[in-house]
Amino acid sequence: MIGPRQALRLFRINWVLLRNGLDEVILATHLFRPLRWLIYLTPWYWLRGELPPYPARVRQTLEDLGPIFVKFGQILSTRRDLLPDDLAVELARLQDRVPPFGGDQARALIERAWGCPIEDVLDQFDPEPLASASIAQVHTARLKDGREVVVKVLRPGIERTIRQDLGLMFTLAQLAERYWPDGRRLRPIEVVREYEKTIFDELDLQREAANASHLRRNWQGSEMLYIPEVFWDWTRPNVMVMERIYGTPVGNVEEIKAQGVSMKQLGERGVEIFFTQVFRDNFFHADMHPGNIFVEPSGRYISIDFGIVGTLTTEDQRYLAENLLAFFERDYRRVAELHVESGWVPPGTRVDEFESAIRTVSEPIFEKPLAEISFGHFLVRLFQTARRFDMEIQPQLVLLEKTLLNIEGLGRQLYPELDLWSTAKPFMERWMKERLGVSGLAERTKQNVLSIADQTPELPLMAYRILSSYDRRLRLAESTHVADAERATQARASGNAIRAIGGATVFVCGTLVLLLGPGHWLQESAGAALVALCYLSGIWLFASAARRV
Ligand SMILES: Nc1ncnc2c1ncn2[C@@H]1O[C@H](COP(=O)(O)OP(=O)(O)OP(=O)(O)O)[C@@H](O)[C@H]1O
User: Fold this and answer.
1) Cα separation of 39 and 450, whole Å?
2) 532 vs 539: CA distance, rounded Å
3) What's the DSSP call for residue 47?
4) What H or E segment, with its residue span, contains residue 141?
5) ipTM (interface predicted TM)
6) So where does this one cross the membrane (predicted)?
7) Whose C-alpha lies nearest to ligand 1, atom 23?
8) What does the CA dihedral 273, 276, 281, 287 come to, rounded to 10 degrees?
C-alpha cells in the first residue's frame, strides 16, 4: 500500500518525467496518467523547445530524482547486456551532486559509534570532508600514535532515504513489468532487486572493511598493488578508519609520466592484477573506476573503496577462462558448447544456432588489429547474444564484465598500445595448466581430503544401501518372471555391488593410510604413489557404482 508521503513522491516523479519529456514512460507504466493533462495545460510545456536525445533525458531525470536514483543509474549503466549502447554510455556519465554534511554532525556520529569523545582516539580530526558522496563522507585524521588515517562516515538517515526510494523503484518496476511490453524484457523487478542488494551491502562499512582486509592479505608484499590497512578497533557498521594513502590519481596521466613511471608496465600490471584477482584469488575489486585507483612513483597501484567485490564459482572461473581462450582462437563452436556445459544457457539450446549467433557478433571484433580487441566488449556482445538464448546472466558475471571494461579503459588510457591479449593469454594458459594439470589435481585432492575423511564413517552405510538396493531388485526379479532385460539389470546390479564393496574398502583403507600422517611405516612402505593410486581408483569405482544404482 502506498502512503501519503509515497504518493506525493510518486507525484513528483511523475512531474520530473514530464518535465524531461519522458511522457512515454508515464503512458507505458500508467503512472498517474490522468495527471499528465495538468502539465499539458501549462504554457511552459509547449515552450520547452526541442528536447535533447532520449538517453540524455533519462540521465537528467535520474539526476533530478536524487542520489539514490543516480546511483541506480550508475549501476544500470553497467548492464550492457540489457541496455542499448547509447543509453548505457549516457548513464555512465551520471554524477552525484550531494552537498556534504557538517563536520560537527560527522563528529557526533563518530562519537556515538565509538562511545567516547573523538579526542580519546584521535590527535587531530579535520571537520572539512576530504570527499563527500551519496552514501558516505570521508574525513582526514591522525591517530594518537601519529599514524595518518581517513575516517569514512555514513550519511545520517541514509538508510531511511534508501528504503523509501527503493520502495518507489519497486512500485515503478512493477508497473513497468505489468503494463510495458518492452519493459518486461528489461526485467525491471530483478534489476531493482539486485540494486537493493548492492546498495545495502554498501551501507555496511564493516563489510567494506572486511573486504579491504581480505584483499590486503592477498596482496601483502606485492610490488604491483597496495591495499591500505583497516583499523578494526575503530571500525563500526557506520564508521570505518583506514590508513591514509598518498598517490597520484590514475586519471592524471601527465603527472604519473612526469614521475618517470613506465606506462607500458603500468598498463600491463593493471591487466595482470585483474586476472590474478579473478583467477588466482577468486576475489576481485569490482568498483575499479579511476576515482578509486592511485599510483605511487614506484609504479605500484593503490586501490581504495571496497564496497563492491566479486567472486566466481570454480566452475564459472574455468568456463570463463576457456571461453576467452576459445574466443581468441575463433573456436565459436567451443564457446557455444561451453555455455551449454556450464549450464549458463538451458540444456536444450541448439549448439549450432548458438554458434552461428556468436560468430555473427564476434567476427566484426576480429576486424580490428589484435592489440585493439576488447575482452569487455566481447563479453558484452556475448551476453547480449546469450540472453536471446535464455541465458540468465548472473550478477557476478555482470560485475566481472563491468570490471573488465573498466580495466581495459584504464589500461589503454595509460598505454594506448597495450595488447591485452598478449598480456593475459600466457597468464590464463598457465592458470588452466596448473588447475587441470597433475599438480593442480593433487592440490585440489589435498584440499578435499579433510571433507572426504569427514565422510568416511558414512561409507559403510552407503555401501549397505547399495547392497540392499541390489537385494531388493534381486527379490523383485525373483518374485516376477525374470525377463531377459531384468536379468541384464541383475547382472549389472551384482557387478555394481561388487564394485561398490571393493571401492569402499579400498577407499577406506586409502583414507586411513593417508590419515596416519607422514613418516608412519605403513605410509612409507606403501609409497605415496601407490596410496594415491588406490585412493583415486577407490573413489572412481565407488562413484561409478553409486551412479549406476
Ligand atoms: N585511504 C584513503 N586515503 C586517502 N584518501 C582516501 C582514502 N579513502 C578514501 N579517500 C578519498 O575519499 C574519496 C571517497 O572515498 P570512497 O571512494 O571510499 O568513498 P565512496 O563514498 O564510496 O565514494 P564514491 O561513491 O565516489 O566511490 C576517494 O576518492 C579519495 O579521494
Assistant:
1) 69
2) 11
3) T
4) strand 136-143
5) 0.97
6) 497-516, 528-546
7) 133
8) 40
Decide if 245 contacts 226 (C-beta within 8 A): yes
Residue 104 appears among annotated catalytic residues: no
Contact 444, 539 (CB under 8 A): no
86-137 confidence digits (pLDDT tens): 888 898 888 777 889 999 999 999 999 999 999 999 999 999 999 998 899 9
Index of the ligand 1 atom closest to the CA of residue 244: 3
Which positions ≥6 away from 450 have C-beta within 8 Å?
A: none
The three-class DSSP label of residue 157 is: coil
In a 13 Å sphere around the CA of 387, the CA atoms on its Cβ side amount to 18
Long-range CB pairs of 354-360, under 8 A, 24+ apart, other chains included: 354/385, 354/386, 354/389, 356/332, 357/385, 357/388, 357/389, 358/332, 358/382, 358/385, 359/332, 360/385
302 three-class SS: strand
For the entire predicted model, the pTM comes to: 0.75
Residues in the ligand 1 pocket, defined by CB under 6 Å: 130-131, 133, 135-136, 138, 150, 152, 228, 242, 244-245, 291-292, 304-305, 307
* Cβ atoms 164, 171 nearer than 8 A: no
Catalytic residue among 287, 305, 316, 419: 287
Q: Which residue has the higher pLDDT, 378 or 349?
A: 349
- Which residue of 208, 305, 308 sits with most ligand 1 atoms within 8 Å of its CB, as the best mutation to test the pocket? 305
Every domain of the chain and the residues it spans: 4-95+162-200, 255-436, 439-548
SS3 149: strand
Q: Which residue type occupies 504?
A: A
Which segments of 144-276 are extended strands (E)? 148-154, 225-226, 239-243, 248-249
- Read off the C-alpha cell for 277: 584477482
